[in-house]
Amino acid sequence: MKILLVRLRQIGDVVFTTPAIRALHERFPNAWLTYVVESSAAPVVERNPLLNQVVVAPRVRGFAGLRRDLALGRLLRADRYEIAIDFHGGPRASLLTWLSRAPTRIGYDIVGRRWMYTHVVERPRELRARHSVENQWDLLASLGVPRPSPDAYPVEMPPIPEVSQAVASRIRAAGVSTGHQMVVIHVSAGNPFRRWPIGSFGEVAAALVTRHKSARVIITSGPSEGAAAGQVIAHAQERLAFTDRARILNCGEFSLTEIRALVDQASLYIGGDSGPMHVAATSHVPMISLYGPTLPARSAPWRAAKWPSAAIEVQGLECRPCDQRVCAPGDFRCLLRIRPAEVIEMAERLVNWE
User: Fold this and answer.
1) How far is the C-alpha of 226 from the C-alpha of 212, rounded, in Å?
2) Which site among 38, 158, 235, 258 is 20 to 30 Å from 279 CA-CA?
3) What is the pLDDT of residue 99?
4) Which residue in 169, 164, 160, 353 sits closest to 268, CA to CA?
5) Coil, strand or helix: which one is 173?
């Protein structure tokens, strides 16, 4: 049997499909599993040992992109998949699923695209307080796959040994030794609606260094937000004695696979609801996740309960969750009302500080 999985776009959403990969492998242990993914999220699944093939479909706009997708569709059809599952539901993903001509094509009931599937699963349009892993798992119900649980089917992204070694050398060169407790603070997010203020990140970093001599804080960011990382470092260092400022570290940009390796070597991860946060969830490191317009009920780290994860959010806002296109109150209160003191207090609880 050959099964095609399609999930385009966001990194976090691709991470959320990894429990389904394992479940499908267990349900069909002899099946050939192919995953179609876009370039940005490809590192999440490229080294997954349960996949037989990963097809990277770069996002190209306009007619050139359509021509490439049609060519990819012909290749998928030639591979004769028996089942195709569209975890995405977007125009590109549904087109590629349909072009595969798999006899069984499973997707969401989306206006204008339901005809592309042989099996349609209802997906309510409203933002529900239900986890994304469970929403995507609905697509597997007709295949006899058992219901998901984060204990039985956590998110997965295997670390790459050579990358882990390179990252270990890099942080040692920056002054982090085995006797230190490293905190990774990721300061960027997928869009401005999820970005906690720079000053708040800086206050948390400075407080952890002040309170704990063993603490070393590495500030990371996305490829286009190196300036934000620099500002957080500067803000934190302004709050510290001169002798402590070197304990706030900027080790440059980290790729997704490097973030995965970096978090494995940390004592704590702090960050907003973003792709790197979900990559961090594939580790066993304690985590503090900050939620603005999104809900932990939908996107909390999906992993075993024995691995500590804490969600910090502002309760009681009528405008939350939102579609992250316009801030209705205009002041991003869902983020600005998250107090640094809450994050610091949670960090004290989750880490056995030396």
Assistant:
1) 26
2) 235
3) 97
4) 353
5) helix
Q: Is the pLDDT of residue 349 over 90?
A: yes
**Sheet strands side by side (includes 181-186):** 248-249, 215-220, 181-186, 268-272, 287-291, 309-313
Taking the domains of the chain in order of start, what are their residue ranges?
A: 2-143, 161-350
- In angstroms, the Cα distances linking 237 to 8, 219, 272 are 39, 12, 22
**At 88, which amino acid appears?**
H
**Identical topology for domains 2-143 and 161-350:** yes
Q: Which fold has domain 161-350?
A: Rossmann fold (3.40.50)
Which amino acid, one-letter code, is at 171?
I
**In terms of Cα–Cα distance, which of 17, 21, 57 is closest to 37?**
57
Among residues 85, 78, 80, the alpha carbon closest in space to that of 139 is found at: 85
Burial class of residue 353, CB neighbours in 10 A (0-12, 13-18, 19+): middle
Instruction: Say if domain 2-143 classifies as CATH 3.30.413.10.
Output: no
How large is the C-alpha radius of gyration of the chain?
Answer: 21
Could you give phi then psi for residue 223, rounded to 5 degrees? -55, -30
Separation CA 246–CA 242 (nearest Å): 8
Are the beta carbons of 176 and 210 closer than 8 angstroms? Answer: no
Per-residue pLDDT tens over the stretch 145-166: 988 899 999 999 999 999 999 9
Structure tokens at 306: 């024995």
DSSP helix/strand/coil, 50 = coil
Q: Tokens at residue 95, please?
A: 């087109």
Q: Which of 25-34, 45-54, 73-82, 128-137 has the lowest mean pLDDT?
A: 128-137
Cβ-contact 7, 37 below 8 angstroms: yes
pLDDT single digits (tens) 265-310: 999 999 999 999 999 999 999 999 999 999 999 999 999 999 999 9
